[in-house]
Each structure stands twice: as C-alpha cells, then as structure tokens.
Amino acid sequence: MPVITTIEDLRVLAKKRVPRMFYDYADSGSWTESTYRANESDFQSIKLRQRVAVNMENRSTATQMIGQNVAMPVAIAPTGLTGMQHADGEILGARAAKKFGIPFTLSTMSICSIEDVAAGTDRHPFWFQLYVMKDRDFIERLIDRAKAANCSALVLTLDLQILGQRHKDLKNGLSAPPKPTLATILNLMTKPRWGLGMLGTKRHGFGNIVGHVKGVENMGSLSEWTAKQFDPGLNWGDVEWIKKRWGGKLILKGIQDVEDAKLAVNSGADALIVSNHGGRQLDGAESSIRALPQIVDAVGSQIEVHMDGGIRSGQDVLKARALGAKGTYIGRSFLYGLGAMGEEGVTKALQIIHRELDLTMAFCGHTNIETVDKGILLPGTYPT
C-alpha cells in the first residue's frame, strides 16, 4: 500500500481500482472540460499571507452550516452513481462523515436508497439532494421519504434541467440506456477487487427510483425513464412549491450569477451553493471560486453562501472561507477516497483536508476558523 498524504494520492489509487467507465464518470467535465479544470486551477493563483510569532495553541476549525454544528466548514457533496465507485458507496461515505462530524449529502441518483443510508447510519441525520423530475407525484413521495429518513436539509439542484454533454461517458457507453463497449467490458474484468465488492452487495441500480416508479424494472428502462424525466420547465415557482412541501432547511445548488443569487434570497431558502456542477454542465462558465466573492458581496448578509467545485485540499477550503463561503463541499475528493479504499479512504480524505486546513490557518495567524477573512490573502491575487 502506497503512503497516502494528499487527495492526489487517493485519485491515483482510485484510477487503478475503479473501472474506467465509472472513474471517468466522476473525473470529467462537459465538452472541452475548461470549466472543470478552472475550478481547480483558479485556486492556485490565490496566495496566502504567512504570519509568524502568533500563539498557535488551542486551534479550532469547528463552525456551523445552516445552524448545524460541523467539525470543519466542509460537507460531502451529492454525487450520482457513488455506489458504482465502490460497493455500497453512499452508506460508507455517510458513515465516515458521521464519525468525522460533517454533513453527508445523498444524491437523488444514488445507488443506495434514502432508506439504505438511514439504516446504515442508525438514522443519523444526513442531507438529501433533489432533482426535479416531470413526475411531480414521484417528487412529492421522494420528499416525504427524505423526511421519514430523518434528513435534516434538502439540497435542491437548479442547474440540471437538461444534461450537459460529457464526451467520456458517451465513449464509455455510459448513456441512456447503457451501451457498454468491448473495451469497457474488458476493463471491468481487470478490476477484481471492485468486482468482488459488487458481488457482495445487492445494490446495483438507482435505489431511490427502482421500486418507486411504475414500469421501471431494470437498468435499461431506468436510464430511459431518467433521461426523459429531468424537467426543462423548472422555474422559481417550483422552488416555492418544494420549499412548502419540504418544510425544513432548504439549500439551493447551482448558483453562479448575482441575479440568480438575489432570486435565491427571495425564494426564502436558507443557503445557496455557488456551483457550476463541477464543470459538468456549461463548459466555459466561470469557476466557482471566481464567482464566489461577487455573490457574497451581493447577498451574503441575507442568505448563507456556500460553494463547491475544485476543492482538493484544506488550503482550498480556507481560501473559500476567506472569500466569504460559510461552507464548502467536496465531491471528487470524496469519490477518490471512496474508490481507492472504501470507507477508510473517505476518512483519509477528510483527515487530509482537515489537517491542511488546520495547519494553513495557523500559518496565516489564526487559531479559529470563525476569525478567518480576506486578511489572510495576498492583495491582488484573489478575485473580487
């Protein structure tokens, strides 16, 4: 086993252990992938101010996200097909998050169902991410199931009314319905550890949908149903209806523009996530970290602002916090850990990010995450 010290180490190991079609699904963006790459690279140009001779004792990264206590301002982002990176992946991710003291967000398009995750974590509260489908009856039942499972927040994704084109998925046959290629099938045969894990679980389909939608009995009919169900007619009126039906904490995911941020405030949501869907939707859109400051300036006093996209280290978390994000989300960094080593790998990813966050905060002259602001950044190196 190689020595794991960074998220990149986990990525390299995950690439070896996860079948190419599922690794590529997680590690790709739409079209030229320019936004996907910018999400990560735009963090690098932001420079930190090192301070010395500051008492670094009694450091704390603990804070709150939407009123919930968190060990650090990080949540696990909702990611589709997580249970294909590693058998029972959503349950393992939720367990690791519970032990670490951060929120886990389950995707509508998860392999393990809402009920699976609730049972696998002894009904510890987690967050549920909702895609709005044309079948409103199904959505209402999905919201009710999330309530019954003790979910403590609903994350409503607004930027996937239609699907962005991801070339790697098409080349790997990960389409609706799936069309696996000979190369894909041969590659699956070279991943025995992954295969044994999958043989040991009964969870191979979209658990939140199979058995809950009439006429969906297999992966083919399921993929076809899903592809036709994303609702291009989604609008702010639907947000109002969902907020009322849910009745709890509501987070709106996919905000990149100041005008949309103002509409999010008017909707009465508790938080918004500055997000471009990990560069998987509109290629050529601005990176999340560049979009963040202007949204914080416009609405940060009226709504809690979070962000995701490109976070691969604790330093990235600290930079986002300095630019006004009250919370951040990790998707790929979580999936790399899961694909590399299961629950142990997720825990390792969280430990890496926490240690980097803690040490960098201290080097910048702070002992409490609550006091971190733009003062830790070198002027002229960060977006405004």
Record keyword descriptors for this entry:
384 residues; alpha/beta; TIM Barrel; two-stranded antiparallel ribbon; globular
Q: What's the count of strands?
A: 10
Output the CATH topology.
TIM Barrel
Contiguous runs where pLDDT drops below 50 for at least 5 residues: none
Strand residues, percent:
5-15%
Overall helicity: 40-55%
Instruction: Let me know the average pLDDT.
Output: 95
The CATH architecture can be named as: Alpha-Beta Barrel
* Inertia-based shape: globular
How far apart the termini lie comes to 43 Å
**What Rg is obtained from the alpha carbons, in whole angstroms?**
20 Å
Number of domains: 1
Structural class: alpha/beta
Question: Care to describe what's here?
Answer:
The chain has 384 residues and is of the alpha/beta class. The chain has a single domain, classed as TIM Barrel (Alpha-Beta Barrel). It has helices at residues 7-17, 20-26, 34-44, 89-100, 114-120, 136-148, 167-172, 182-188, 192-199, 219-229, 236-246, 258-266, 288-299, 314-322, 332-363; strands at 63-65, 68-70, 74-76, 105-106, 127-130, 153-157, 250-255, 271-274, 304-308, 327-330. The strands form 2 sheets. It has an 8-stranded parallel β-sheet with strand order 3-10-9-8-7-6-5-4. Strands 1-2 form a two-stranded antiparallel ribbon. β7, α12 and β8 (271-274) form a beta-alpha-beta unit. The longest helix is centred in the C-terminal third of the chain and has 32 residues, at 332-363. It starts with 6 loop residues before the first helix and ends in a 21-residue tail after the last helix. The mean pLDDT is 95.
